[in-house]
Specification:
The complex is a heterodimer of chains A (about 110) and B (about 475). Chain A is an all-alpha fold. Chain A is built from five helices and no strands. Chain A has a domain of about 80 residues. Chain B has two domains: about 160 residues, no CATH class; about 200 residues, no CATH class. Chain B has 18 helices and no strands. Classes of the chains: A mainly alpha (about 110), B mainly alpha (about 475).
Chain lengths: ~110, ~475
Amino acid sequence: MIDDGPDPQADGASSVFARHRHELEIGPTARPYRLRPVWLACIGGGVAGALVGSAELARWAFDLPLWLGPLRAGLVAATAAWHDAMQAVGLDGVHAAVRAGFQALAAL
Amino acid sequence: MLFPTLDFGLFFLLVFALAWGLKDWNTGRKLILVAASYAFYAYWDWRFCGLLLASSLINHAAGMAIGNSPDRRFRKQILTLAIAANLGILGFFKYYDFFILSLNDLAFQLGIERELPFLEIILPVGISFFTFQGISYVVDVYRRDVRPQASLLNLLLYISFFPQLVAGPIVRASVFMPQIEQPPRADRILAGLGLILITIGLFKKMVVANYLATEMVDWIFLDPYFYGTGDLLLGVYGYAIQIYCDFSAYSDIAIGVAALLGFRFQKNFDQPYKAESLRDFWRRWHISLSTWLRDYLYIPLGGSKGGRWATRRNLFLTMLLGGLWHGAAWNFVLWGVLHGAGLVVERALGWTRQAAKRPLWRRALAGLIVFHFVCLTWIFFRSADLDGAIEYLLGFARFDQPVEFATPLVLSLLAIGFAMHLIPGDTIDRVERALRPVPLWLQGALCGIAIVVIDAMGPEGVAPFIYFQF
């Protein structure tokens, strides 16, 4: 936290920060992307998450506050139907299998 | 709204779409980000949005007054008023009840029966962080390190930006303002890095930190009287890993989320338990706070310019106030006192001089001593109160108690957490480079699957991040 070297003048103290700023950069060589692939990455992440996390999605909709009324009812129905579809193709098992495995480890 | 929840995931996707949708209208983008940040804050308690707004208005007005006046005396008066207002707000919400309790205790001991009233004030989440950002802004304007912001919108966004609003990192105006004054560069988004940081952060928080807390640390610290030497040692090592994984996870996710929105923040942790001195530890732990304390407290106190004893006093005071910043309780004060005293002793003995030239065994030994000193101070930090910390320390003498918590899960998590902490900082860069051939949409999909798997691996429910309480 504290520099051993000579202190800057009191009024220019944050120049210490400015001098060392580059040392704190994260990923200075990281590749920058254009917006379009970043959009696709967010959509990809959302879709993939919904595919393997359908049970969590259904639970989330069920836990929504009741005052949302018809919006809640619609979301509950839609996410339940989605979960049923994922169950039919076996994708819902990922979450449950990982949880069961980890809880078995925890019980050791 | 907590990061590792579906609520936040959906909130983020909406903000991402709206903010980038308005990339060609910078004012609109900033309006969306401010509205999103206030919505994010209101999710905890909407009543404190007024406090956030008041803090921004005070600092905006003070910044303008300081920046536009050539009169040095007037500028100093306004700066003093602004700092007093910031600290007054923080002091009222965070320390009022603590000082009333301490005064009542003192009065009772002096035989005075009249008690001052408690207000039972709710602590607004993140108040310490946005107050420190506000102070750094007005001080930097005073020092002419940053220009005063004529745009209130810019200052509202700086104080409230949601990724770092409630638990840091504390971002300097000199880092943040240039990123919002110009329209965002839609071809310079560090998306690969952001996805990696978010995934790693979620794993550290939801698996390592949450399991260590629920399976061991919370039980041991709840009542240390029931446990012996082995469990108490495991408890303190567990907390050292838990707090690192919890807090650095929040920073990782905040930096990753900000990166996806086109912002660049700086790192907040750098393998802190590898430190070979306490000074080194504070260069690696909560870097945004330790550099803040250096620039806005230690150096204004005189830094190392006033001679040996003045330097020691300044070091000690800085750490004492750093401890008090963490919480209005005597155990936090003692935590700060221990770190301050440690830094003073270290400096007095010259332990930090030419540390890199020492033989490896001496460096390893120094690292081991520093790690255990930091662990000792974590006992005060984590305990509910001072009595609990003393009870914990006394328990180290109970050698005859069997060890209950050395389960395969706990030992694995300790090893994984410590190993993750030892991963060099440039490893994330290397992972990012290695993943470049993978199309970004596929990286996003893998991140989505990883988040679901991490959610499944963690214990039921979502525990708040430790630093929310500060």
